[in-house]
Structures are given as C-alpha cells and as structure tokens.
Amino acid sequence: MKITLVQLRAFVAVARERSFTRAAKVLDTSQPSVTTAIKQLETGLGLKLFDRSTKVLSLTKASAAFLPGVERILEDLDATLADFQAAADGTQGSVAVAVLPSVATVVLPDTVKSFSAAFPKTRISLRDDNSSGVCERVLSGEVDLGVAGRTDHIAGVQFDPLIRDPFGAVAHKSHPLAQEQGPISWDELDGYPFISFAADTGLRPILDTLTDIPENVKSPWIEVSNIATVLSLLKTNLGIAALPKMSVNPIENDVVFRTLLNPPLFRELGLITRPGRSLSPAAQNFVDHMKVTLRPKWER
Hints:
This protein has 300 residues and is an alpha/beta fold.
C-alpha cells in the first residue's frame, strides 16, 4: 500500500469542503488533480471514501471513522514542519554563549533583552569564564560562541573584534587620584602602589605593550589573576590599578574610574568561534544582532 501526503491532504480537504471544486481551491490545485488523488487513495485503501450524488457529497461510514486520525497526523506533521522551519531560519532554537564576567554584567544585558524581544522563541544560555575558559568552551563545543579578549596565543579559535574597551586608572574613592574627575595620564600614576595582573592573564600582555610609563606600573606591587580580585583590593585602598572600563560596574560606589591618556590604551573584545564550523541559524541571528548593538562601542 502506497499512500502519499498529497492523497491524504486531498481527502481531508474534500471531507471538510464537501466539494471537489472547493477542495481544489483550498489546496491551490486543479479539480482533476484532487479527483485523481482521491481515486488513488481509495484504490490503495481498498475502500470507498465518499458517496456521490448530483447534489450531495458525503463521507462513507468507513472514511468518517478514518478522517479524525488523518487530521491528527497532518496537524502533527504541519506543526513539526513549522518547528523545523523556525529552527532553520533561527526564529526558534537555542544559543549558548561563553563570556567574560565583565561582558556578562555590563555589555550583554541590553543585547540579550533586545534579542529576546526580536526572537522570543530562542533560548539563551550565558556562561561566564576568563578568556582561556571561554576559548576552551568554544573548542569543546560546549557553547556555540564566545565573547572574550584577543586570543592570538590560543590555537584553533577565530577572533573577530566587536568592542574597544578603554583602560583607566581605578582607585578607592578616598585615594588622592580619585579626588578629581576626567582623564588622567600614565605619568600621574607614578609613586603609588600599583596592582596589576599576572603574566599568564589576558590583560597583562596589553599593559606590557606600553614602554614610556612609570616604573611602579612596569613592576607592580601586587599581581593577581582576575579583575574581581583587583577590585576587592582597591576597595580596601591598598593601591591603584589600570583596568578596562567595562570591568568596573558603573553603579560601583567604592572606586573611581578615570580614563588613561598619553597614550590611550584599549582592550579589544571580540567574537570567539571555531573556524570552518558553521553556526546554527539561532546562533547566527544572535551574532548578527550583537554586532549591530555593540557596533557603537567599537566606534567610540
């Protein structure tokens, strides 16, 4: 027995419309095509589906019992195909993103909010980690993509810049450098205990690109491995630090951020992906949306 979807859809349309002509219009096909489909279905099933007269077209007893099951099958199939299409065009699905903590708390909330409004059926999972951890999650396939600092030293990932995040001097609100607002030069940091990052972190290589800076910045008093620790030390007024602006929460009351100039210094944050590996439609939609919403932060 060979039964096709065309035959089943023709049967349901004729049963609902009680007319081959109206069924053909519903199916956007010709009446002869509908008639042929019904005849083939009757032959395949070995039973008569409709009682025909000059004025009335009615279901036989067998086809009346057959109709509800066919309708359920077609409804389930149509729903499945709709879900499949939604996943294919990215309007439905899921996307997992690994991000730096500063990105998760400062950068992405507005992006996630606007993306969720545009794609309400797409689920989003955010997992925060340091730059190396973000890359590892991308490489392992645990997440679809990441947002982190430059990863030139990590093989197997691709970096596409999204944001330029300026460095600034950060100090406790009672510190002498925090008593004024506005930009500050690197030379003005001279003589203060300086807290910086260990050599194996993503920020230390950026700071090490500077040459004409005070000795206390070149040889810091304390070295740590993450921004959270630096901020904790700054809140006890143990010293000062140079941090990317996005790492300092704007609602933070205990510390003050002043943009560093002469020379200005930036951390580049970008999209981390695996080269040669296509993103799912949902993930690609998230990337496209993120690039649009974050573009102003690159152009500053």
